[in-house]
UniProtKB/TrEMBL annotation:
Residues 26-449 form the Amidase domain. Keywords: Ligase, Transferase. PANTHER family: AMIDASE AMID-RELATED, TRANSAMIDASE. Pfam families: Amidase. Its EC number is 6.3.5.6, 6.3.5.7. One of its GO terms (molecular function) is glutaminyl-tRNA synthase (glutamine-hydrolyzing) activity. The lineage of its organism: Bacteria, Pseudomonadati, Pseudomonadota, Alphaproteobacteria, Acetobacterales. This is Aspartyl-tRNA(Asn)/glutamyl-tRNA(Gln) amidotransferase subunit A. It comes from Neoroseomonas alkaliterrae. The keyword Ligase applies.
Amino acid sequence: MSDLALLSVTEAAGAFAKGEASAEAMVRACLARIEAHDGRINAVVRLDREEALAAAAALDRARAGNAKLGPLAGVPMMHKDMYYRAGKVSGCGSAIRRDFRPKATATVLERLDAAGAIDMGTLNMAEFAQNPTGHNRHHGDCHNPWNLPYCTGGSSSGSGAGVAARFFAAALGSDTGGSIRLPASICGVTGIKGTQTRVSRAGAMPLSFSMDNVGPLTRTARDAARIMRVIAGKDPRDPTSAAEPVPDYEAALTGDLRGLSVAVPREWFFDGAEEAVVKAFEAALEVLKARGATVTRVSAPSLHAVGTYVSVVSRVEGATIHAEWMRERAGDYATHLSGRLYGGYAIPATWYVEALSRRGPLLRQFCREAFAGHHVVATPTLRMRVPTLAETDIDASPDNWARHMAVSANTRPFNYLGLPTVSIPCGFDDRGLPIGLQIAARPFAEARALMVADAFQRDTDWHACVPAL
């Protein structure tokens, strides 16, 4: 443990619990790494150095006094700048909220605090969480730690880049159209979006009433399982949160895939897919087969309707949330974002109601198509290799719009369907940039998706690779 910043969530929690590393030493290691390298990555918005060190010292004293420790005790974390902490600025990646200080703390932050995690501050993100690449005109773009001119994925850009760069062990992101899974894939880390309603959204900046999700970006599937056990579950402050019991996700990570069937849809996910992505995906399937899984190609024609409806829902709900500011402060938005929001006002109400009313029937249809006789669905997280920041900058050139939106083509359907979905690294392309494998399961079957992800990581080391900062 020469560099404590390299420890994963479970490694850091274990080292602290056993007395092999102090919480203060782990925080200082992360702070040193941030100070040495974030000038080029631009992942961090606010660094709460003194508060983090004080929290670490308190945990060290508690351990010395044989106090009961939480499952995340001593683990350094930072979070996307849209999770409210009472009295602290939560800017949401915007100019409009650059001075916003909420009066209450997000439920997920309270649950992480209670589990012993150390909050070191906030992270860069796309403005109001509304783009898949992570561009930000107000704080500056976040850069991919594997290759700086390339994008990080968004909107949880700082979360993905910071976990990959080993600035902290894990981070919260949010996912409305792929904003956890995209930076996880593009930055070479693990990210999970739970079932819709699985994790409370109280105290988190809203984007889409019916598709927002809270979840972690981590080094490993085991790390994600531990954090999900802490943050998932019913919350009285969020009436939309599910009362479904929360299982021990970590206990489900057996590594045994014998008898497990993986479905690979023929439609949608491979349309225009690049050769490097397909090659890495097929190699990943072989790893799962070697663990005992079977793989079957299935037809899922419902995906074409899903791909249309998801855009209607996200645009209308996003435009609704921003209606007042768009009337009064439209000039404070980046050009690409105001353009996206204006588009939402042009969608007829009948289209929006149709898109909402079709969600249940299309979910049932997709489950019949993809899950009949199968346990999980596997796809590439992105169809393309990681693009550069310049290639996806739609403020610089509207001609980049198609490439910009294509980044999230494979993640958006699972938001509309509300299914739990994990992205894990499964290779690198010829430019040294990560490629992601996406695993989806039935509603509230996060444990199964994580089990498959963990089994894959037992036989590969893509998740253990560290960018040469």
